[in-house]
Amino acid sequence: MNCRFRMASEIFAFLRCKQCVRAADTPVARHADFELRALTEEDGNKEEPSYTWRRNVLIAALLSTITFFVASAYSMVASFFPIEAAEMGSNSITTGVIIGVSPLCLATLSPVIGYFLPKLGTKMILISGQVLVGGAFFLMAFLAYMPSSTSFVVYGILLRVTEGVGWAMSNTTIIALIPVLFPSRVGTLTGLIFGAIGLGYTAGPPLGSILVVAAGYSAPFWIVGGIILCLAPVTFLLLKETSTSSKVLPFQIVIKLLSHLSFSMIQIAGIVGYGSLTFQEAALSVYLLNEIGLNLLEIGIYFAVIAVSYTLITVVAGLLSDKFGPRTLIITGLFICGASLMVLGLNQLPPIPPRWTILISLALVGCGAALAGVPAYSDLLQQAQ
């Protein structure tokens, strides 16, 4: 349900874009357009921030950089953190809770932050999100010095919750800023931001493994967390506060969307597709280390394969969705995900060595998740219109 509200909030943000809402002639869209016109008239005398072309390029680069490092911070722990947690006495279930609580906070809080974003201010929320993500990730380096497994788990969950809150704040604000700062380049900037997310997911696991091998367990947290914290003052100096209304659109629009069966089914399909990318993170690295005999660097490469295949197929999935329709690709992607995960669980295909079976399965999981997830977003937008 949390993921459903997060995906619905993205559609809700889409309906708030004035040009996009006016392009749709439906009762929901006309109601949202009426609210937008009222808010625009109320704020008509407010001065919008002016940006030069060079400043826009710098802001686009800044937002992409923030997105990349925040995504890297989330993904890089998959390659080495479960191993460290096992050494500290944490079982796979508890480790899964530590890793999974961050995206849970993202899914839960993104709709809330998006709803109250006009009241709280984009600049303040974005900077606060960076501080929370960078600070929490930096402090995770000290989990290795906890005196007991209980303290390791408790502080690990608290830090990951804090990281998830900051992740929701920064991610939601960046997506909301795109149509405000770049009204004529919404598609280009959206692709750039989602490309940075995919690149961060791709580079995170091998980068984390390299840093651990080179400088120890604490190095990834100190370096990446420090970079995210350093980007906060840059954001303060470069980004101006946008003039937003003190009112928000009725949340009933989101409730109406969620009440449609087809809308909910497509959300579930997207959740299953994206969930296929991450649910094996807590146990797979330990299995690759103990059963397959891989080292940390090789484990990082294995996790990078699933992110690389996902990143590459996202572009193809978008093109195929426009040509063949989203529903066909969603069904195909879910079938690929299910079959690949079954092969990954069996891990015993006689003609193929186990390590190659796992590698191929992970690559196909990434492809299936892209085919199921990207068209799902397009399908939801079509239903919202």
TrEMBL record:
Pfam families: MFS_1. The keyword Membrane applies. It is found in: Membrane. Its main location: membrane. The chain crosses the membrane at residues 57-81, 93-117, 124-145, 165-182, 189-215, 221-239, 260-279, 299-321, 328-346, 358-377. Residues 56-385 form the Major facilitator superfamily (MFS) profile domain. It comes from the Eukaryota. GO terms for molecular function: transmembrane transporter activity. Keywords: Membrane, Transmembrane, Transmembrane helix, Transport. One of its GO terms (cellular component) is membrane. It is a multi-pass membrane protein. The keyword Protein transport does not apply. PANTHER family: GH10249P, MFS-TYPE TRANSPORTER SLC18B1. This is MFS-type transporter SLC18B1. It comes from Geodia barretti. The lineage of its organism: Eukaryota, Metazoa, Porifera, Demospongiae, Heteroscleromorpha.
